[in-house]
Amino acid sequence: MSDAVAAPAPAESGRTPPILEVRGASKLFGPVRALDNVSISLDEGQVLGLLGDNGAGKSTLIKAITGVHRLDAGRIYIDGHPADIRSPNDARALGIEAVYQDLALFDNLGVVSNLYLGNELTKPRWLRALGWLDRKAMETEARRKLDSLQVHLPSFSSSVGLMSGGQRQAVAVARAVAFATRVLILDEPTAALGVRETRNVLDTIAELPRRYNVSIVLISHNMDHVVEVCDKAVVMRQGGVVGEVVPTAETMEEMVSLIVGARTHKEE
Question: Model-level pTM?
Answer without folding.
Answer: 0.80
